[in-house]
């Protein structure tokens, strides 16, 4: 089930990446590259930081093909995308929580403790979007949007708590997915935001 | 011969990197850093992603010295550089194809399949320039220029096809170099471009 | 003693990172992330480039907690920070030299030569700040400020020279710290700058 979710998640993230590239008027090659970076960048950063080789897409090059195809399809159905915004918000929320879960599991399997596992979860969840924004020369969006990274953080700890309470893996995954998705959608609906820190050098 | 090409390529790329830093008015240290990142960054990203240690410049620190010296020389001959634009376009095209070839070979030697080898070729070819633009806070140029990343992509597959057909290595290298260089120069001459994807949120 | 210095340095760097995030009006999560990247990013880039696993903060997750707490504290004492500028300039200078020393030592212990050790020293010293500026979408400051990267470079070679002369480690560290700190503070006081390279495409 997690694999299915992962495939849906990387497809959805690839399509949001492709739209970002389109907003900058990039050529098709750039669109494909930004899509792959958005979809697979978070997991790659995690794996490089904890030295977990080979990377997912090196082991499964078919994921690269999937994200590239998703990017090219996006180019052709772009006029439709405007009507699918709600669907993509849900898919994006699902992807965020699924990435976070997979990041936590990967770190735990590699023998890391809870703190590093939660950090790996958040990195997997949000770094794809951060890299997308750096490549497109934007200030990373995730620091300005409604609870996004925070959802990833809370989902990571929810999952780790379930593990700590020795719930079976499936229950832990389902509880985290449901809770994380709900929190994210409520945050979008009611525009919940983290407090912002605004600092000016001159008073 | 490929080593000779590699040395020419990193020198030329270091010099284009130094000019980019100069356009932003950086100090000499920034010029050297941007030059090294431009010349050696593509190979470094590739090696980190496939876990191929030690990195080229860690094993051969003399390449770092070469790119640093090239950067410093560029500062002094900058007024000349304007008259050498055509030469640098050719050297840059040569570097693009040579980097791509080396990236493919490195991946094949490390035991990766054709798809990952082609991706490694493209990463080696274009990521130096992408990193240069990120460090200089520009939108990566390669997504806006005439067939650039695409030349790298086609050169990679041309080389891999030659390998698949079991041509001797030298022939495969020569065919790819010649074909890639020709395609790039034709693309510059006739301003061939990839189609662009322009997306606006509001219709 | 070097550990004490390291802890002071990452705390000070985390706080300067948090202020940068505040200048961009990021939310609390972004502030913590930028603080961690600023404080621990230089060492992480070094370790990834030379394949030195596990990374410092993966082995000692308590450093992540320290930098996160420092970032959150910064949010609350921000109005005070304006009066502590001189203190932070000194702490930042201390951090720069301490990071450089630690980077050199790590590379030497991993068996690398003098040139790579000096490069690792500079990367550890300056890349945290470079990553901070890339995440905040600025042109990296270090290429525009008074001797900053150059201090790191000279400190690295000062330390390596002491090692070469077979001075005891403590003496080498003390000489480098004192010399580097002095040079940086003099550079700030008298606005010493590296010459800049300004290049325009049109004459």
Automatic annotation (TrEMBL), chains A, B, C:
Its main location: membrane. Keywords: Cell membrane, Membrane, Transmembrane, Transmembrane helix. It is found in: Cell membrane. The chain crosses the membrane at residues 63-80, 87-108, 114-135, 147-166, 172-190. Residues 4-78, 90-163 form the Glycine transporter domain. InterPro entries: Gly_transporter (IPR005115). It holds the Pfam family Gly_transporter. It comes from the Bacteria. Belongs to the UPF0126 family. This is Glycine transporter domain-containing protein. It comes from Pseudomonas syringae pv. aptata. The lineage of its organism: Bacteria, Pseudomonadati, Pseudomonadota, Gammaproteobacteria, Pseudomonadales.
